[in-house]
Amino acid sequence: MSAIFFLIACSVFIALFFLGAFFWANKNGQHDDTYTPAIRILFEDDVISDGQENEKGVDESELNK
Amino acid sequence: MTPLKDVQKEQRCFHCGDVVVKANYEVDGHDFCCLGCKSVYQVLNQHKLTHYYKYNTHPGISIRKDKSQYFYLEDEGIANSLLDYKDDHIAAVTLYVPTIHCSSCIWLLENLHKLQQGVTNTRADFLRKEVRITFCHDIIKLKQLVELLTEIGYAPIITLKDTLSKSEKKDSNRLVRKIAVAGFCFGNSMMISFPEYFGLGTFERNYAQLFGVVNLLFTLPIMLYSGQDYFVSSIKSIRQGHLNLDIPLTLGIIVLFLRSVWEILSGSGAGFSDTLCGLLFFLLIGRWVQQKTYHHLSFERDYRSYFPVAVTKIDAGEEKTVALSALQVGDRILIRNNEIIPADAILLKGAARIDFSFVTGESSPVDKILGEIIYAGGKQTEQVIELEVVKPVSQSYLTSLWNDQKNKKEQVFFQSFSNKISRYFTPILLLIAFISLFFWFYIGEPGRAWSAFTAVLIIGCPCALALSSPFTLSAVLSVFDRNGLFMKDTLAIEKMAGIDTLVFDKTGTISTLHQKELPFKGSLPAMEASMVFSVCRNSNHPLSRKIVQSLQDTCEILPISSYAEIPGKGIRAIIKNKEVLIGSYSFVVGTDVQFYKGPGTYVRIDEHVRGVFSMEQKWRDGLESLIKALSSSYELHLLSGDVDRDSSVLSSLFPQRDYLNFNQLPADKLHYISSLQQNGKKVAMIGDGLNDAGALKCADLGLAVSDDVNNFSPACDAIMSGASFSKFCRFLGFSKKAMHIIYCSFAISLLYNIVGMYFATQGNLSPLLAAILMPLSTITIISFTSLTTRLYARKYTL
Hints:
Number of helices of chain B: 29
Strand content of chain A: under 5%
Structural class of chain B: alpha+beta
Number of strands of chain B: 30
Distance between the termini of chain A: 69 Å
Radius of gyration of chain B: 33 Å
Helix content of chain B: 40-55%
Shape of chain B: elongated
Shape of chain A: elongated
Helix content of chain A: 55-70%
Order of helices and strands of chain A: HHH
Structural class of chain A: mainly alpha
Largest sheet of chain B: 7 strands, mixed
Strand order of the largest sheet of chain B: 16-30-29-28-17-26-27
Oligomer: heterodimer
Distance between the termini of chain B: 39 Å
C-alpha cells in the first residue's frame, strides 16, 4: 500500500510539470496576442522562387473565381 | 469571371475600393482612384507582393496622410525615445497603426522585409493595432521606416505620450499566473479530498492524516501567493475607513485556513482545504473577468495625445527640430499646413486661418491677423506661419483646462453596488457569528461554540455575491461591444444605470459632418452645373473633389479658357466667356450683396450669385425618435459651441427650451456640468470629445461619440460609434436591466448563504457540505447572470 505515496508524488509531479509549462508559455508571451496567429496560419507559403509568372497566374485565377 | 466584371462596372479602385471618378489611372487592367493607390500597387507588384489583393478585395487604404509630418524623427533623441530596444545594429520599435483592419494588412506588414532592405522582422497585433518592427538602423532609419509605412497606407500615429511613458507597461499576466496556481491547488486538493467524502474504510483511515497534511501543503501557495490581493485590499479598505466586499472574503479565507490547520493537526477532522482552494480559484476568475479591457482603445488620453511630438523652431534663421518639452517662452516656431499649434503664441508672419474645432467647437476656420494670440490646439489650414511662443506648453489655455479637471475628478468617489452592500454585510455577518458563539457558550457547549463561530464566517463568505457583479457586467460589456458601444470598465455600466440627466454636445455629436450628398442651396441649371463641374475638376482641394463627386453623374466636361486658383479663397475661371467664381463667402459674394451666410462653398457666375454647396451638418439618423424616447425619463440639455443658427430646429426637438445653450466655451460646458451635479443630478455628458473634453471628464458618465472609433478616443468612460447613436436609448435601458440582474443574483446568493447559515449556526458544518455549497452557488450565479443578460439583450434587440 506504500504505492499510494509513490502515486501521489507522481500525480503532483506531473501537475507541477504542466503548471511550469503554463508559466513558461505565459512568460514567453504566448497569451499576449490570441487573435493574430489565427489569421497568420491561413497565409500561404511564399511562391516567389517560382518566378513572377506563377505568382501572377495564382493572382488572376483567384480573382476570376 | 463575374466578380471581376462587377468591379469594372462599378469602377471601384482596385486598391482601396473607393469609387473611381475618372479612370486616368490604370495598370495591368486594374483601375485606381488616385495616383497614391496606383503607386502602392506598383510598389507591391514590383516586389511580388500582390498576394495582398488575394486575401481580401480592396484591402488598401487610400493615402491621405502627408509623410512630411514625421520630420521630427530626424532628431536622434526623439527617434530613440520611441524605440523599445537598440544596440549597435538592431533596433526595435512598436508603432500604433490604426488602419490595420483585415488579414491582408497583417500579411503585408509581416512581409515588410521583402519591400524594404534592413527590416528584419515584423509582427502585427491585430487587436491592439500595433506593429513591432525590428530593423537594422545602420541600413534604414526610423524616419524612413515610418515614411515607408505611410507610403503603403499604414501611417502610424505617434504622439507626445508615446515618447514620455514607455516604461508604464503593466504586468497584466500576474493575475493569470495566480489563477493558474489556484487552479493547480484546487484540482489536486480535490483529488486528495475525495476519499474522505466517499467515506474511508478502516484500512484507509491510516492515511487520513497523510491526506490532510498534503492538502494543507496545497493551501500554502493559495494563502501566500494567489490570495495576496485580497489581504492587501482588505487592509487598505480598513485603513481608509470604508468596508469593501474583500473584507468578509478575506475573513472567510483566513478562518477557512486556520480551522483547516487546527482540524488536520489535531486530527479532529478533514479540514476545508479544497473549499479554500476552490473559493480563491473562482474569486480570481471573477476578478479576471472584471478586468476585461479593449486593447485597441485608450480611454485615458489627454492633451498630450493630440499634440505633436516636436515642432520646428527657428533659431538664428535656421530651422531646427525640437522636442515639445524643450520649447520655451520666446521661441519662434514654424507651423505648416495641418499642424497643430502646441502652445499659446503670437502670430508673427504669414496668413493664419485656424481651425479651432478642437478647442471651441466652431466648425468654420477663423482668420487671424498679425500680432494676435493664437491659443494652443488650433490647427493651421493654410500656408506656413511663424509664431512666437508666449506661454509654455503645460500652461496654455487648453492644457490648463485638462489639468484643472484632473484635480477635481479625484474627489468624486463612486460607490458601486457591491461596495454599498458590503458596508452592511460585514457588520451583520460578524453579529451573527458572535451571537452563535455566545449562544453555545451560554448553553454550555464551548466546543460547538467555536465550531459554529468559524462555520458562520466560512458560510458567510460572499463568494457568489462577489462574482455576480463582474459576471453580469462583463456580459453586458460584450453585448455593448457588439453594438458599437465600448465601455472603459464595468464600473461605467453601473454609472450609466444611475444617470438621470443627459447633456448633449451639438457639433459632431447629434450632428455629423460626414455626408455623402452635397445639397445645393439656390438654383443651378444643368448647363451651369456642368460649368462648375468642369472648373472643380482641375482642383485638388478636398471641397472641389466633393463637388466633383456629387455632380459627376449628370455633368459633362466643358473647355475652360482661363483658370486660376487663389489659395484659401477659391477658384476663378472663364468658360464660354462667362466668369465663374467658386469659393468662400467673402471671395464669391463679397460685401456689397446680401446673401444667406453659412458654411459652404459659394458659386457665382458673372454677376449672379447662384447659391451655395452647403456643408451644413446633418443630424444623425434617428435623432428625433431618440430624443422623443429619452425625454420621457431623462432631463435633456444641449450645449453647443456654435452660434444659435439651428436653435429653431433644436427647440422643436428638445422638450425644454431653457436647457438649450449656445456659444459655449469648453470652460462653460465644464461649469454647466458641475453646476448640474451640485444640484444633485447624475449627469451623463455625450460629446465628441474635441472641445468638450473637460466636460466629459467632469460628468458622472462621459460618453464620446466618434465616427472612427479607432482613430480618436479622448479621456472618457465610454466611446460610442456614430452608427450606433440611434441605439442609445436602448443602451440606457439595458444598463438599468443589468442592475436588476445584479440585484436578483444578489438575492439568490443570499439565499444560499441563509441555507448554509442554518447549518453553520448549529455548529455542524461538514467539509462535504461546504465543498458542495460553495461551487454550487457559484455555478448558479454564473449561469443565471449570463442567461438573463442574453435574454434581456434579445429583448432590447441588441
